[in-house]
Amino acid sequence: MQELLQRYRYGIIGGGIGLVLAILLLTIGFAKTLLVVACTVLGAFIGLYLNGIGVFDRFKGPRR
Question: What burial class does residue 20 get, using C-beta atoms within 10 Å of its C-beta: 0-12 exposed, 13-18 middle, 19+ buried?
Fold first, then answer.
């Protein structure tokens, strides 16, 4: 099972994203879905940038 999930990982992720987009389009409409997608992409880029410069590592420091 683990090997099957590993082999088709990107297909499963793409299918999940497509499913979420379809549900959003059918329930809240095109413009609101576009806003949700834009905010999600912006949040992902900000998270990747902050992770790249090591902001999150500062919070993981040794505890006393």
Answer: middle
